[in-house]
Amino acid sequence: MNPLKIALVGHGLLPIPPTGWGAVESIIWEYAVRMRARGHHVDIINEKKRRAFRTLLLGPKYDFVHNHNERGMSRMRIASMLRGSKLIATSHHAYAFQNLSEESKDLLRKTCYAPYQLCLTQGLAKLIRKRKPGVTLEVLPNGCEVSQFRFEPSPGNGRAICVGRIESRKQQNLIADAAKKAGVPCDFVGPIKDDLLPKGANHLGEWSREELRSRLTEYSALVLFSKSEGQPLVVVEALAAGLSVVVNDAGAPNLDLNQPFIHLANSEQVVEHALPIAINQNAQFRRDIRQYAELHFDWDVLVDQYLEILQRWR
Fold first, then answer.
1. Under CATH, what is the fold of the domain 5-143+298-313?
2. 119 closest CA partner among 87, 89, 86, 76
3. For the whole model, what pTM was predicted?
């Protein structure tokens, strides 16, 4: 393949690479690092909408503009048309597919401005195809820098962990209640947006990327019980660290639910039942979990797939 010229467009709100929180920023950075290592020219445009538009108009011509900022899609469409670049959209928004909010409808409409769609999940792909029949579309999940996550094959600490912003959408209060009823110690990591953790819940604060990569493997299971998600990066990060996972449908896109270390739990009662099983069985599957992450979610694997898609679209 001849070298590609690609612009990866972020939100302009957090630095790339991220110094702390910032899943989308981390994803953009991992794409850029690996694409550059393969000999392609990749620029990161991490500016707010108007400045990103101006940068694209005045900068070099790209083969592809891959926009990860739904709110700036209309400007990116105009800039791409004027410069003769192909515009790709990836939406990271947490869509509740059965009950779309007004915000979700607005972001979906803007995402559909792009003629090329790279969707994180089949659910979003179905939604976009319904709104825009004949769209050029592929599904490619978020990945993880698997090798950068410390992995200990020895048993974890017998604790569960929930990583993510503490907010009503993620329902950490229900996780805390289920874990308490199950007799499973559970730690919570992430910045606090909503005051919903019950009294006595063990909140460890916000971890840096380095802390997450180093400390996650100490645990036995990750639990996530959100009302909605895009494709949660932390789930594949937990797999890279060797943890079993307990997730509901929102946290399970792109996962093989036949794997014995992936537990689907769509009610608080099932979370309560599944957590002890996931923790007790974790030592048995830790090496298999790590290998599963390497084969299906490692960024090197996914970037190769990404390049194959771009070659077809070029």
1. Rossmann fold (3.40.50)
2. 89
3. 0.89
